[in-house]
Amino acid sequence: MRLVLLGTGGYRPNDRRHTMCLMLPECGIVLDAGTGFYRVGQYAVTAELDILLTHAHLDHVVGLTYLFDVLRQHPLRRVTVHAEADKLAALDEHLLAAAIFPAKLPCEFRALGPSLAMPCGARVRYFPLKHPSGTVGYRLDFADRSLAYVTDTTATDDAAYAEAVRGVDLLVHECSYADGDADARLATSYGHSVAGAVARLARRAQVGRLLLVHINPQHPQDDPVGLASVRAVFPGAELGEDRMEIRF
To answer: What pTM did the predictor assign?
Structure first.
């Protein structure tokens, strides 16, 4: 199965990374709709699209307003946006207010329920994460593989969500700070993660591969997370880059 990274940065885009947006093109599933969402039309192959939002912070949802451009590139007969009910209400009231975005999006909003079935036979589970105003992570289990997406939270050695991602073939996890970064002390208050803690969590959860995303746009471009130190704890770690394609 192919996972395409359309945006791998956090907070704001820079010359190397757009903000968070991941896509499973053959399934028509998108995870978050950051500024990288404008690339969806370039990779879309299905007639329907399901967008799973983790939360409603602007760097994860502003790409919804690019949907008209996506549809010009690749017409879709259905687009459904899935998120917690309060996050959908916030988007409708604020981001899509007529004074800010004077057009009606050609999509349906659907609140997350107890269970969620997705294309390609995916069974989707979501779980709460600690972050200002709240967010969720997702686990997608297919017949023969699994993927978890965790962003905008603080990885810790006792994080409860480790059980939700246990044993997945691929864990996509945010990594905003390198160990020793001067700003790493802000991780807990900002609701973001430090590299070493992410590596330890991946090892404890016995995941197959670890992909680091939601990179701080102010960090050095070539090695923003201290990848060697992450691999010393979890050898299967990779740094996500925009337009990277992962087979899992």
So the answer is: 0.97
